[in-house]
Amino acid sequence: MLFDCAYDFTLVPMNFEDLGLGPKTLKAVKETGYTEPTPIQASAIPHVLAARDVLGIAQTGTGKTASFTLPMIDILSRGRAKARMPRSLILEPTRELAAQVAENFETYGKYHKLSMALLIGGVAFGEQNRKLMQGVDVLIATPGRLLDHIERGNLLMNGVQLLVVDEADRMLDMGFIPDIERIFKMTPFTRQTLFFSATMPTEIQRIVDTFFTQPKTCRGDPPDRHRRHH
User: Fold this and answer.
1) Record: fold of 3-228
2) DSSP at 116
3) pTM to 2 decimals?
């Protein structure tokens, strides 16, 4: 069952302080020059902070990356990573998108001491494995490279508290859904799950119905509606 949290944009908070983020994260946001959250950020961030499963329906360019990186930084600031056991996992369909998410964490998490590893093709396994050995709070990966590391015994998924699948419909188009399902089954059933997709094909809905616990459905308004309310 899905619980919708689409916002009337006239009710969106005027600034990030209204969303429940901590002072260090807010300081980093302020330094980027952003003052007002986008619709997907305003609707998703409070539910992520409240440890709810979230299904975010939003196009690229609506600020959806910050809608999960900002609350994740606050959540992960409490706790410590163990060797080979990442505390969170973000799955991206391409190296380029994974690198963009890593940049988000570096920008918004600069006042927190969170460790991060990026598992993408084109980078030597040895360098990536060294980071995993040190323990990472945030693991950002493409599905294929992640499974390669798992099969080599380089990491365990049973410490994942927060799992994010970004660009889910693109994952479907690229044939990654069997890998995604396999990865889901490796993580604890108690994890918090965040799913972001521009559209909701039947196959994506099936995964949500199978692996989510009463998710909140949060939507990003299209840009033309955004403009009309400002």
Assistant:
1) Rossmann fold (3.40.50)
2) E
3) 0.90
